[in-house]
From TrEMBL, chain A:
CDD domains: TM_PBP1_transp_AraH_like (cd06579). InterPro entries: ABC_transp_permease. GO terms for molecular function: transmembrane transporter activity. The keyword Ion transport does not apply. Keywords: Cell inner membrane, Cell membrane, Membrane, Transmembrane, Transmembrane helix, Transport. GO terms for cellular component: plasma membrane. It comes from Sulfitobacter mediterraneus. The chain crosses the membrane at residues 21-39, 59-81, 88-108, 114-135, 187-211, 231-251, 312-331. This is Monosaccharide ABC transporter membrane protein (CUT2 family). It is a multi-pass membrane protein. It is found in: Cell membrane. It comes from the Bacteria.
UniProtKB/TrEMBL annotation, chain B:
Gene3D superfamilies: P-loop containing nucleotide triphosphate hydrolases (3.40.50.300). It comes from the Bacteria. It comes from Sulfitobacter mediterraneus. Coiled coil: none annotated. GO terms for molecular function: ATP binding; ATP hydrolysis activity. Keywords: ATP-binding, Nucleotide-binding, Repeat, Sugar transport, Transport. This is Monosaccharide ABC transporter ATP-binding protein (CUT2 family). InterPro entries: AAA+_ATPase, ABC_carbohydrate_import_ATPase, ABC_transporter-like_ATP-bd, ABC_transporter-like_CS, P-loop_NTPase.
Length: 335, 494
């Protein structure tokens, strides 16, 4: 009864793409860049505009630079979505971490500021984990709620530190804005980070449990998995990652505001979904989400270049994300 | 046949894919008659009931209502033609109050309230939320609702299963009264004493066929049991080599006076190392709850469970696993990660504990998993996703999971349900082999002929309590089925 041998080639092709979601995504990314080049000749290949260079490393570096914080927040979504969850507090956690770090480093110096900022992420994450894993609140509601509470706390905190001024730790500025061989220094943080996430998902018992909980929580329970432990650890990790992304973003933007990274939240969900992560749990890849983040950035650039009004841009953005996801789901037969 | 006949179903056949649930089933009811529908597990009772009440359409055969061909395409149509069922599972919507539930089926309120009183439920308010009411009350409400619609034929499916004895008496009395006034009743039940008290006739189903129509009279039980079993001579299956290890003296698991509300009232037995202990029970006698309780899914409401001499209080399956008690549930879909690989499914318990959340020990894992695959002869051609395996191979994966971690006590709940004969014959020797190596196995099966094949002893559970513990090796199916129907005590008298 081996059904694999009787499957049609179409089904097998779909399955291949599902097992290797990055391949069609990379093809799509290249296609988008080509379209961009058509809209604005020379932006990617300077020689066509009469300037030096085959490919603009500056442009590529910029693309990567702005995709990094998005990809890091997408990691929060991929990891939580593996268990059929989501982390809607990630954007706010990133903002809070950035805000706390900037205000505290002018008082206590960069190291305590960074540590406290990270622990903010940890606290929100642990609360999310307890809500989802112990109290069994739906992740959507839980993380939405903690996100709102965190926003409120940040507004209160802002009044307290209104005179303190802000300062961006030098190492964050270096990571956020510096370049080495035309590539953003953010990669020094991001490459080890991506390897860590990859390792976590593929080569650890914890990673296995994320897939297991998302596939069939009852089966995991039957095998002796205490789900709440996994959820608390997972959301705590997600909080930490969001805080780290916020710090990097702070170094990149070099300004604080009460909504610094919040606009990145929904694109981070989109990047994860475009990257082949199922919101129903049990399937996902971080490599896909990274390509998803790059696609979203190219899309953003494209819409900006077309000089559309903000409203039209947002509409088109939503439409394209829906289309891409729908096509993708069609090909791979996944959800 | 006669002029008073209300319902006549004949030649009913129904297949689900390759499985023939019904081949040639028939049943008739006349005015004022109470007919029992009997059959062992898997005989096709529930499919037949669903067809009569319009929930399923038959592939073949016809249903006549008052001599006219009826097209009973849906439960609503069945209701309109005067056929009203009361199913085993309450069919009231828990999130609505009683009055709203009645409105859904256009049930007249006044007769409903009268029936509720008549059936012995006091102090019910129509604004009570259905979800807050106890199971026994719900079943009575279901019955009252059915009676209030003044049916021509009432179908009662295991009506008395969750009821305390005073309510059972009321139900039987009311049913008899209504039959005397001309209503026809189809009474699906496992309980001989109720059938002999209440019914006029019994229709017996075996392997999807009606094999007999008995008039209820003293001593009819033996004939019914004979009919339910038939002459099943599967001699090949008997050739399973029953190797016997030495059975230990000190019990590995002692179950003492366990009750689990509402279904299990009193279960006690010991499991010894090296022994396969069978569980003989008809569907819904509390065996599901017993297994879930032993596996750590729910605590007993009374009594105690000792493992290796220490009293346990399992609050999670992880506690049971730590005590060496491993569970293979009846529904494979419950136990498997459908989209994950065979390897990941078997290796799942390795990562369960927090201390093993780090690096996977790939080599260690591969060795254990391959050992389990070899031993169970799992066909791994489609190992990338467990859902692409056949049912038998999926079941092997759920068992293999525990072989890979080592088993002290194994709880197997109907492990051969819905799998092919070849795989079944691989599972019996495996169970024997595990026992021989010192494991203790609790083995529930819905197919009685497996009990002498695989087990040393068997506990018989009826209506939530242990009614007998028998020597399985020499038990024939007739003895087992009689026991399962709670008839052991009357054996001498019969």
């Amino acid at each position: 009864m081996n059904m694999a041998t009787t499957d049609s080639s179409m089904v097998r092709f779909g399955r291949f793409l599902r097992d290797n979601p990055v391949i069609p995504l990379l093809a799509f990314l290249v296609l988008m860049i080509a379209v961009l080049e058509v809209i604005r000749p020379g932006i990617v290949t300077p020689f066509r505009a009469g300037r030096d260079g085959l490919i603009s490393t500056f442009w590529v570096g910029n693309l990567i630079k702005f995709a990094i914080p998005l990809a890091m927040l997408a990691a929060c979504q991929v990891l939580t979505m593996l268990t059929a969850g989501i982390d809607l507090s990630a954007g706010i956690v990133a903002t809070v971490a950035a805000f706390v770090c900037a205000t505290l480093s002018s008082i206590w110096g960069p190291v305590p500021a960074v540590l406290i900022a990270m622990s903010m992420g940890l606290v929100v994450g642990v609360v999310n984990g307890i809500g989802v894993g112990v109290v069994r609140v739906h992740p959507l509601i839980m993380t939405l709620g903690t996100g709102l509470i965190a926003t409120g706390c940040m507004q209160v905190y802002q009044r307290l530190v209104i005179n303190a001024g802000s300062e961006i730790p030098a190492v964050l500025s270096w990571l956020g804005t510096g370049r080495t061989l035309s590539m953003p220094n953010g990669l020094f943080l991001f490459v080890p980070f991506a390897l860590f996430v990859f390792w976590l998902m593929r080569f650890t018992g914890f990673g296995r449990l994320l897939f297991a909980l998302g596939s069939n929580e009852n089966a995991a329970k039957l095998s002796g998995v205490r789900a709440w432990q996994v959820y608390v650890a997972l959301y705590a990790l997600s909080g930490l990652i969001a805080a780290l992304a916020g710090l990097l973003y702070l170094g990149m933007i070099r300004q604080t505001s009460l909504s610094l990274a919040s606009p990145l939240l929904l694109p981070s969900v989109a990047a994860a979904v475009i990257g082949g992560t199922s919101i129903f749990g049990g399937r996902g890849s971080f490599a896909g989400a990274i390509v998803g983040a790059l696609i979203i950035r190219v899309l953003d650039t494209m819409l900006t270049l077309m000089q559309m009004p903000e409203g039209a841009r947002t509409m088109l953005f939503g439409l394209i994300i829906l289309t891409v996801t729908a096509i993708y789901v069609r090909i791979t037969g996944s959800r | 046949m006669n002029a008073n006949q209300i319902l006549d179903a004949s030649g009913i056949a129904k297949s689900f894919g390759a499985v023939k649930a019904l081949v040639d089933a028939s049943l008739s009811v006349s005015e004022g008659e109470i007919v029992a529908l009997m059959g062992a597990n898997g005989a096709g009772k529930s499919t037949f009931v669903k067809i009569i009440t319009g929930a399923l359409t038959p592939d073949n055969g016809k249903v006549l209502i008052r001599g006219k061909q009826a097209r009973v395409g849906s439960p609503a149509e069945a209701r309109r033609s005067g056929l009203v069922p009361v199913y085993q599972e309450p069919s009231l919507i828990p999130d609505l109050d009683v009055a709203d539930n009645l409105r859904l089926t256009d049930t007249p309120i006044a007769p409903f309230e009268r029936w509720v009183k008549e059936l012995g439920i006091e102090g019910l308010s129509l604004s009570d939320m259905v979800g807050d009411l106890p199971l026994a009350t719900l079943r009575i409400l279901d019955l009252a609702r059915a009676l209030a619609s003044e049916p021509d034929v009432l179908l009662l499916d295991e009506m008395t299963a969750a009821l305390p004895s005073d309510l059972v008496e009321r139900v039987l009395k009311v049913t008899r009264q209504q039959a005397d006034k001309g209503m026809g009743v189809i009474y699906v039940s496992h309980r001989f004493n109720e059938i002999s008290e209440l019914c006029d006739r019994a229709t017996v189903l075996r392997d999807g066929q009606t094999v007999g129509d008995l008039v209820i009279e003293p001593g009819v039980e033996d004939r019914a049991v004979e009919l339910m079993l038939g002459q099943r001579l599967d001699l090949a299956a008997r050739e399973v080599n029953k190797t016997r290890g030495t059975i230990g003296d000190t019990p590995r698991v002692r179950v003492k006076g366990v009750a689990i509300a509402p279904k299990v009232t009193d279960i006690s037995f010991d499991m010894f190392p090296g022994e396969v202990l069978g569980v003989v029970a008809l569907e819904g006698q509390g065996q599901d709850e017993l297994f879930e309780c032993l596996a750590g899914f729910m605590p007993p409401t009374a009594g105690s469970i000792e493992v290796n001499g220490t009293t346990t209080a399992f609050r999670h399956p992880a506690d049971a696993i730590a005590a060496g008690v491993k569970f293979v549930p009846g529904d494979r879909a419950d136990a498997l990660l459908a989209q994950r690989s065979v390897r990941e499914n078997i290796a799942l318990p390795f990562s369960a504990r927090m201390s093993s959340w780090g690096w996977l020990k790939m080599r260690h894992e591969r060795e254990r998993v391959e050992h389990a695959i070899d031993r169970l002869q799992i066909d791994t051609r489609a190992q990338g996703e467990v859902q692409r395996l056949s049912g038998g191979n999926q079941q092997k994966v759920t068992i293999g999971r525990w072989l890979a971690t080592g088993v002290e006590t194994l709880l197997l709940f109907d492990p051969t349900r819905g799998i092919d004969v070849r795989t079944k014959r691989q599972i019996y020797p495996l169970v024997r082999e595990l026992a021989e190596q010192g494991s203790s196995v609790l083995f529930y099966t819905s197919e009685l002929e497996e009990i002498p094949l695989a087990c040393d002893r068997a506990v018989v559970i009826f209506n939530g309590r242990v009614v007998d513990i028998i020597d399985a090796e020499n038990a024939d199916e007739q003895t087992l089925l009689r026991a399962a129907y709670g008839l052991t005590a009357q054996e001498g008298a019969a």
